[in-house]
Amino acid sequence: MLKIEHLKKHYKNFSLDCSLNVMPGCVTGLIGQNGAGKSTTFKAVLGLISCDGGTVTVLGKDLKDFKAEDKENLGVALSDSGFSGYLTIKDIIPVLKNLYSNFDYSFFSEQVNRFQLPLDKKIKDFSTGMKAKLKVLVAVSHNAKLLILDEPTAGLDVVARDELLELLREFMERDEERSILISSHISGDLESLCDDIYMIHDGKIILHEDTDVLLSDYALLKVNDEQYETLDKQSILRTKREAYGYSCLTNQKQFYLDNYPKLAIEKGTIDGVITMMIRGDE
What are the start-end ranges of the E strands in the chain? Predict the structure, then answer.
């Protein structure tokens, strides 16, 4: 669905060199700190900024060969984009009908009612949650094959986030060939939605893992200095000095459970892995 190979973009104080693959039927998460390169990657994939190298293949086509009709197969919601705040939902419906030949008006109207979005209110007067729902709703209302969503749940409360994630799950269930590339700071969103996760830091991918594997096989070992000295470190990915000794990230939790029964071992989480991969030492 989407293949990025050494996508390069250079700025004065930042360089991107990103490779990732979004498979058919999969939800892929891209995680990282602010400024890590998530939005730059998304904009380059969409042709909104020029690239300095690498290749991008979208829905089987090189990005350079992507035409207007091909873009109808993409559903996009970027953090810094959207309709003019002076428009209403009634105003944008004819725009969407003209933009997308496959715009599903009945589905769109049904979801507008479901989310209790006002038809006649100016978008600038919407709450943060209402604006976010409208963005994603537009992205999923024209039978797109691939969604590209940059921080769609940012700033939302728990209920609004859950409603948005449910909408994305329903989007995937309606066609098993559809895919989503999504970035988010909120690890719970990714843990419940994504099939696999890429972690980007300083413009480079530093980890790619299936979500199930990350949650089942990764762990944090909490060890004192004496335990650290005798620890088998072959399966330690990162180490961080702590007041009590060391925190160690591993992707072989069962090995340490079996061989070091007295160790304090914490189950891996996306937040924990991010922190260790970025702040820990190799």
Answer: 2-10, 15-22, 27-31, 53-58, 61-62, 74-77, 146-150, 179-183, 196-201, 204-210, 219-223, 236-241, 246-250, 264-267
- What sign does the dihedral 46-52-54-55 (CA atoms) show? positive
Mean pLDDT of 90-96: 94
pLDDT of residue 141: 94
**In terms of Cα–Cα distance, which of 143, 57, 136, 59 is closest to 99?**
143
Residue 47's Cα: distance from chain center in Å? 19
Predicted structure pTM score: 0.91
Cα-based distances in Å from 71 to 139, 147, 239, 246: 12, 11, 44, 49
End-to-end CA distance of the chain: 33
100 with 135: CB under 8 angstroms?
Answer: no
d(CA 196, CA 203): 19
φ, ψ (nearest 5 deg) of residue 64? -65, -25
pLDDT digits (tens, 9 = 90+) for 203-253: 999 999 999 999 999 999 999 999 999 999 999 999 999 999 999 999 999
* Residues forming beta bridges with residue 204, ordered by sequence position: 17, 201
Element (H, E) at 191: helix 187-193
- Residue 7 is encoded by which pair of tokens? 């996508």
Q: Tell me how long the chain is.
A: 282
* Distance separating alpha carbons of residues 249 and 240, to the nearest angstrom: 9
- Asked if 61 and 48 count as a contact pair (C-beta separation under 8 A), the reply is no
Confidence of residue 95 (pLDDT cuts 50, 70, 90): very high
